[in-house]
């Protein structure tokens, strides 16, 4: 804006926070992702600690192919979290007057 304008404007970026529900859902997704990581790398030990014998088939499947399980959990978890927290908000103000908004 400053390079194409005659007037020298002060430009600053400010984050637009997502709603409380979306933040909470992203936090739940993070907990699920971290729990999945724990199951991939220490699932059998965790099941033994809690007295689950035999180990559930899902945890056995995660541990049989640790690399693929980790990559899928990593990318899908991050995709869900970023989708939930994205606001795509962009607004332009001149002084206190709203000139343009992607939210309205």
Helix-strand category: mainly alpha
> pLDDT average, as an integer?
89
Order of helices and strands: HHHEE
* Low-pLDDT regions: none
Tally of distinct domains = 1
The count of strands amounts to 2
Relative strand content: 5-15%
Strand ordering within the main sheet: 1-2
State the share of residues found in helices, binned by percent.
55-70%
Distance between the termini: 22 Å
Q: What is the general shape?
A: elongated
Report the major sheet.
2 strands, antiparallel
* DSSP helical segment count: 3
**What would you report as the Rg, rounded to the nearest angstrom?**
23 Å
Provide an overview of this structure:
This protein has 104 residues and is mainly alpha-helical. It has one domain (20-101). The protein has three helices and two strands, in the order αααββ. It has a two-stranded antiparallel ribbon. A hairpin with a 2-residue loop joins strand 1 (91-94) and strand 2 (97-101). The mean pLDDT is 89. Keywords: Membrane, Transmembrane, Transmembrane helix. The chain crosses the membrane at residues 28-51, 71-93. One of its GO terms (biological process) is cell redox homeostasis. GO terms for molecular function: thioredoxin-disulfide reductase (NADPH) activity.
In short:
By secondary structure, this protein is mainly α. It has three helices and two strands, in the order H-H-H-E-E. The protein has helices at 20-49, 57-64, 66-85, and strands at residues 91-94, 97-101.
List its traits.
2 strands, two-stranded antiparallel ribbon, 104 residues, single chain, mainly alpha, 3 helices
